[in-house]
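Hi X.,

You mentioned you wanted examples for the new student's onboarding notes, showing what a folding record looks like when two proteins sit in one file. Here is a clean example. The first protein comes first, with its sequence line followed by its structure tokens.
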Amino acid sequence: MRRRGAPFGEFEVPLVGAHNVRNTLAAVAVATELGISAERIAEGLRSFRGVKRRLEVVGTADGVTIYDDFAHHPTAVAETLKAVRSAHPDARIWAVFEPRSASSCRRIFQGDFARAFASADRVLIAPVYRSTLPEAERLSVSQLVRDVNANGGSARDAESIDAIVAAVAAEHRAGDLVVVMSNGGFGGIHQKLLNALDPGRTR
């Protein structure tokens, strides 16, 4: 990193994604203005392990790694998946998405969501959480699936959490990465996935 045109320091952070590089730059800038040395900043960044629900590894079973991420806006979904792709260019990435937040349940981001899943190899979309929304306002999962597939992706809708778990359990292969995205608990899907992938694991 350079500051005012001069070399300032080398910094390493154990997170993936361009958005985390930008966040790190901002953190370094603030810390520097507060008078913290480049060496102390570098030490702090090296030991930082991220925050809960931001590409948090929940566990690994049968060679499949399950991530939990809070992404629910199309920009966050896209950045999260790009980050995983940049760190694991050869892996098969599953994007499992629950439209749950007030905005993601609505049609306002219908087109944006169709583009957000471009970095995933497999996309599974859960039912819209706020099912009582009028149909004219509610995100159309079937349309989203059609649009993702029209853009060259491989997407499908799922009638339930159990259907998602069954699909991953039946079709997974070692090395797969499953990125589960929701701003809620998603019905405990993370543990259900781990249990289905390895029925003998300790719960």
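Then the second protein repeats the pattern, sequence line and then tokens:
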Amino acid sequence: MFVVFAAPLLSENAMRMVEAAATLYGVRLGVITHDPADALRHLQGSVAHWRVSDILNVDQLVWATRELAFRKGPVERLFGAYEQLQVPLAMARESLGLPGLSVEAAINFRDKPRMKTLLRANGLPCARHRLAPSVDDAAAFAEASGFPVVVKPPAGAGALQTYRVENMDQLRRALAGQPPSPSSPVLLEEFVRGREHSFETISIDGKPVWHSLTHYEPTPLHVLENPWIQWCLVLPREVDDAKYDDIRAAGRKALDVLGMTTGLTHMEWFRRSDGSIAISEVAARPPGAQITTLMSRAHDFDLVQAWARVMIFQEFDPPERRYAAGAAFLRGQGHGRVKAIHGWNEVQRDLRELITDVKLPETGSAQSSSYEGEGFVLVRHPETRVVEAAVQRIVSLMRIELA
């Protein structure tokens, strides 16, 4: 089977996906990217490559896929993990007559106001919102909803360009630089107070066949607002506990409403202080923030390769959740370059048997622009409470000094 994977750049994460797909039995892989073919040299010519100048351009995606098909044979799948690419990929598949997530469904996942409108219309709990085409419209929503409110782009990803405003003056200042317009509106949401989580689901032919859960501490928005915070996330072992019945039911209904067919989805949601839930948004792609790696560690399998098999063969064997797993993200204190790493010896001394993965910055390296920070430590253990204590211990002991 000849299949094509598309990614703007062959980043570390994208290369993991390329290698996972290329090593599946019976698969011949093509790659469309902005990067030159040299990035794939280590695969010894087993991967066909086509370079484009704008991978978000549907015509270029169609052209590249047809050129690869001309050289290597008929293409049977066209897929990718980059969120901004999901709609162009769906449009290219429609043009080429290839199976996969439809254009309508891809837009449902990508267009956040449309998504929330669909969810609310189908009785699913989510934050109140408005797509505001003007400053006055944004102000009217904020007055009706009450402050604080969250401001974000309509097609955001990973909490980027998302911020909270506390009053009308802050809102007007926030919108002054790039005032919203009918052609470039801004999305406003009520600020949901509660604990934030994620809910990951693998679906085959529209049927959810497996799920995972994650707890954030603190919320990603709070992390973005406070660059010094070393934050954590935990995948509890008890994913089938009755206390998650409401989000499992809501999550599955949401995927049905949005039109999910086959793939891995990442939903962000809140548990309010009164116990109720609110869906924030859903992405039709694998999760970031090391969640994919943590799911691999919690189940003792390779989720990236499992995702590739889902996308190519529509096959998945649900694994057993053997462990809880957690990530402690190490974010630099100060500004500049990494001067010193404090506390690592103590973490090794106290938690060595729990640690599965480590990424520490090199002294002298530039400060990271990612909300993940300068590095991370991943841990796992059969008991969730042990993992929760371990990640908190790591962020209390370790400090990345910048100068």
